[in-house]
């Protein structure tokens, strides 16, 4: 395994898996999380969880998971035998986020019960997986078939989670290849979390992933959209 070559360099947040594939180092789970507050601000985070030699590298080398052109805060925690590295950035408006291979947007669609039920808003995130592969010069994914990827990544997973205030009105089906990934939804006193979890291999082989949720909440929402970021190329 070319472990040091992968985790000693900065990596695009949405291309962590491609850096790992280039170094034949797939023993980790990848998670991305977004939270949207009632004022339209929130947080964006990327977490990598690994055990064994990969976890040791995260713990000792403190790999810098790049959050696009955004300056984030990174922390290392332990979860049983796993080392979890999380990088997080706060934003006042989605336009503050500069993301190279994904787009996150809010669109105000109206008022519920003449405004008594709050504002209805559509949250949409597009993960341009094909673009992440293209912009990561070490991925060389055209030579990585499904069986090879399965042997590299095994049962490891990719997760996207979104926390939204208020109530969930509708969740569009997430289609990955020839199947639909069902969401898990759970509520708290202030809002709801929607979670999609899939095999890391399925995420890797997808061209794009579209996460789409309609919600209703009282707050100061406005149409907003993340900005294009700068692609960085890396060598192992």
Give the secondary structure arrangement, pairings included.
Blueprint: H1 3-7, E1 11-12, H2 16-22, E2 28-36, E3 42-50, H3 52-61, E4 65-66, E5 73-79, E6 82-91, E7 98-99, E8 102-111, E9 119-127, H4 129-135, H5 146-153, E10 157-165, E11 167-171, E12 174-176, E13 179-181, E14 184-187, E15 191-199, H6 200-205, E16 209-217, E17 224-225, E18 227-228
Parallel strand pairs: 1-4, 2-10, 7-18
Antiparallel strand pairs: 2-3, 3-6, 5-6, 8-9, 8-17, 9-16, 10-15, 11-16, 12-13, 14-15
Explain how this protein is built.
This protein is α+β, with helices and mostly antiparallel strands. The chain has one domain. It has 6 helices and 18 strands. It has helices at 3-7, 16-22, 52-61, 129-135, 146-153, 200-205; strands at 11-12, 28-36, 42-50, 65-66, 73-79, 82-91, 98-99, 102-111, 119-127, 157-165, 167-171, 174-176, 179-181, 184-187, 191-199, 209-217, 224-225, 227-228. The strands form 5 sheets. Strands 5-6-3-2-10-15-14 form a 7-stranded mixed sheet. A 5-stranded antiparallel sheet has the order 11-16-9-8-17, with no helix packed on it. The protein has a two-stranded parallel sheet with strand order 1-4. A hairpin with a 2-residue loop joins strand 5 and strand 6 (82-91). The longest helix is centred in the first third of the chain and has 10 residues, at 52-61. The chain is globular.
